[in-house]
């Protein structure tokens, strides 16, 4: 991710205040406003305890529990308790309940009042069958007491977190793409939905396809400098990056990149609050960028390739650091620039930053340079392959321990080496 603005402090206050004043921001034609659902979402988490209910015979993977419990960052995190649906009691309905798991594995007594029809292999919405593993939904019940975060395939269980779902009452996802978002009233016909396929069809006109990319440009995009050879140049970047990362280029997922015209437009398509101008955001094989700026494009593509060929890591520090490190393969200037930033801001690198919640990382642009250099240092120490394996297994601290070191010691040595 590449945010434009640097939030110096008080992110939770900014989050609350700005999210609640969305109505004052110009509305993009064709989109449903986000404000009311957001209040309901904030209210839902304004509880001491959240009860997570799973289908019987289903257990949440520990990585999912970690992500689920770290969703709330704007206030003290609630305590999460877990139950299988057969343990769910009448008194539990008084609590704030998050249903989590494949919708078709819940029994029809528990998973009620949904705008989705649950079918054997998935669900149906607006007459369309969503029965692929990558199909998922998020739904806030109008009572404000229940949210449903359901998915067909295990690997798509957390899509709602990537999109910080809650700006709308309802989302339907297909992989990393939002298919529908909006508000769905159960009692009246006043549902308001963003039909994202249609909105994308209207907004994007020019498409450039290449071996690894599909680039979608906004109809209002007026950059004449987009040459026909752009696709070839970008494909070359992917090949070189794979070469440097020592991964093959076989079966790379086609990367769908959406290029928006004006700052803020991107936010509507990913349902992101408007208080933050986002230059770029990567959701695996789908990237979104404002304008067409080559460094931003390469930045988000780097995330996609790492995710595809190496794996995912939930930590912003390591995710951005590893991505930033790849710049050094291409440019010594990139390395030297980061070195200058680090010399200036070295006190920011602490063990707390390495393990900080992602929102802390994104508060300061200098963290990109710091994490990039620190990852480069670790790779020099353990080797690229060992780092790649630990990154994909989310076991970087374990890797450090195996070397007989601690994060504290590593930071200490790194600073000593680089600042002398
Ligand atoms: Zn990034």
Sheet with the most strands: spatial strand order:
3-2-4-9-8-10-11-12
Structural class: alpha/beta
Total of domains: 3
Shape: globular
Radius of gyration: 22 Å
Distance between the termini: 32 Å
In the predicted model, the low-confidence regions spanning at least 5 consecutive residues are: 4-25
Number of helices: 16
- Sheet of most strands: 8 strands, mixed
Number of strands: 17
User: Averaged pLDDT, please?
Assistant: 88
Helix content: 25-40%
Heteromolecules bound: zinc ion
Bin the strand percentage.
15-25%
Describe this structure as you would to a colleague:
The chain is of the alpha/beta class. It has 3 domains: 31-190; 202-309, Glutaredoxin; 316-419, no CATH class. Helices cover 39% and strands 21% of the residues. It is built from 16 helices and 17 strands. It has helices at residues 11-20, 35-45, 62-69, 159-162, 196-203, 230-245, 265-269, 294-309, 316-330, 332-345, 351-355, 358-361, 366-382, 384-392, 396-402, 407-419; strands at 2-3, 49-54, 79-84, 96-101, 117-119, 122-125, 128-130, 135-140, 146-151, 170-174, 177-183, 192-195, 204-209, 213-218, 255-260, 278-283, 286-290. Strands 3-2-4-9-8-10-11-12 form an 8-stranded mixed β-sheet. It has a 6-stranded mixed β-sheet with strand order 1-16-17-15-14-13. Strands 5-6-7 form a 3-stranded antiparallel β-sheet, with no helix packed on it. Strand 10 (170-174) and strand 11 (177-183) form a beta hairpin. Zinc ion binds at residues 1-2, 299, 303, 320, 323. Zinc ion (ZN) binds at residues 1-2, 299, 303, 320, 323.
């Amino acid at each position: 991710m590449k945010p434009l603005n640097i939030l110096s402090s008080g992110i939770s206050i900014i989050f609350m205040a700005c999210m609640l004043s969305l109505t004052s921001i110009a509305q993009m034609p064709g989109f449903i406003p986000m404000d009311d659902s957001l209040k309901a979402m904030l209210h839902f988490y304004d509880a001491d305890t959240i009860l997570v209910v799973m289908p019987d015979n289903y257990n949440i993977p520990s990585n999912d529990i970690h992500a689920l419990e770290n969703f709330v960052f704007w206030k003290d995190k609630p305590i999460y308790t877990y139950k299988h649906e057969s343990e769910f009691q009448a008194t539990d309905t008084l609590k704030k309940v998050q249903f989590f798991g494949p919708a078709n594995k819940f029994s029809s007594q528990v998973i009620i009042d949904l705008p989705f029809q649950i079918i054997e292999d998935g669900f149906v919405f607006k007459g369309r069958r969503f029965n692929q593993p990558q199909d998922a939904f998020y739904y806030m019940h109008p009572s404000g007491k229940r949210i449903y975060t359901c998915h067909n395939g295990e690997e798509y269980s957390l899509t709602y977190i990537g999109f910080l779902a809650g700006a709308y009452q309802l989302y339907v996802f297909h992989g990393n793409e939002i298919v529908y978002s909006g508000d769905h009233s159960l009692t009246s016909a006043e549902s308001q939905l963003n039909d994202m396929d249609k909105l994308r069809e209207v907004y994007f006109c020019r498409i450039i396809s290449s071996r690894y990319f599909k680039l979608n440009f906004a109809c209002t995009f007026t950059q004449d400098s987009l040459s026909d050879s752009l696709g070839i140049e970008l494909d070359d970047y992917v090949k070189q990056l794979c070469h440097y990362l020592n991964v093959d280029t076989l079966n790379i997922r086609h990367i769908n990149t959406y290029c928006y015209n004006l700052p803020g437009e991107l936010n509507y398509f990913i349902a992101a609050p408007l208080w933050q101008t986002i230059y770029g955001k990567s959701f695996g094989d789908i990237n979104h960028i404002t304008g067409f700026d080559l460094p931003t494009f390469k930045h988000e593509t780097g995330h996609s390739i790492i995710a595809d060929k190496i794996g995912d890591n939930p930590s912003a520090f390591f995710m951005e650091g590893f991505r930033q490190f790849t710049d050094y393969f291409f440019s010594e200037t990139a390395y030297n620039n980061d070195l200058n930033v680090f010399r200036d801001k070295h006190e920011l690198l602490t063990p707390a930053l390495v393990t900080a919640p992602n929102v802390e990382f994104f508060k300061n642009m200098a963290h990109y340079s710091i994490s990039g250099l620190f990852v480069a240092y670790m790779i020099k120490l353990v080797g690229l392959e060992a780092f790649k394996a630990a990154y994909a297994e989310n076991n970087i601290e374990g890797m450090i321990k195996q070397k007989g070191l601690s994060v504290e010691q590593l930071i200490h040595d790194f600073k000593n080496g680089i600042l002398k």
